[in-house]
């Protein structure tokens, strides 16, 4: 619930009228693939945005194929977090540092910016991954996110996992 409230939270979200469906996937590739299959079966193609605030290593052909199917055949838009390792997250699938999901290139990868304006500009956050597969940067530092179902508890967080739902919310 924490990062999804940045996309569609009723108080602070960028898309307050968006319908958000959280799909628990765990940390396994099988869980991620099952979650994406659930979305494919239950969401409305060409009218749904998928936001994934996680990453994994190494490269998995099955994830690449699933993203390709959802984007090119089903009409979904997928946003993924770019990673928080201050590295080029766009190295090839055979590299020692392949950052999925951003390096798959089927999804729109989101990096994070700082919360401070310097010389009239925002800059990449020091932790945010970078490289030619990072398609867009968004605020990712000091993001207020809802902690509970009532509107009284918020937490401040940082990372590309917070920047990603902001961009997905704007797209929604």
TrEMBL record:
Coiled coil: none annotated. The keyword Transcription regulation does not apply. One of its GO terms (molecular function) is serine-type endopeptidase activity. One of its GO terms (biological process) is proteolysis. Keywords: Hydrolase, Protease, Serine protease. Gene3D superfamilies: Peptidase S8/S53 domain. It comes from the Eukaryota. Belongs to the peptidase S8 family. This is Subtilisin-like protein.
């Amino acid at each position: 619930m924490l990062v999804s409230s940045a996309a569609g939270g009723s108080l602070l979200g960028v898309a307050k009228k968006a319908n958000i469906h959280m799909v628990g996937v765990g940390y396994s590739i099988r869980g991620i693939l099952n979650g994406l299959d659930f979305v494919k079966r239950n969401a409305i193609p060409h009218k749904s945005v998928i936001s994934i605030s996680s990453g994994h290593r190494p490269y998995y052909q099955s994830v690449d194929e699933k993203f390709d199917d959802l984007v090119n055949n089903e009409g979904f838009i997928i946003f993924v977090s770019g990673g928080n390792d201050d590295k080029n997250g766009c190295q090839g699938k055979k590299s020692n540092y392949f950052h999925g999901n951003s390096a798959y290139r089927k999804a729109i990868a989101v990096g994070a910016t700082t919360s401070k304006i310097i010389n009239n500009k925002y800059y990449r956050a020091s932790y945010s991954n970078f490289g030619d597969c990072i398609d867009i940067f968004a605020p990712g530092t000091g993001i207020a996110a809802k902690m509970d179902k009532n509107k009284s508890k918020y937490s401040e967080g940082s990372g590309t996992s917070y920047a990603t739902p902001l961009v997905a919310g704007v797209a929604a």
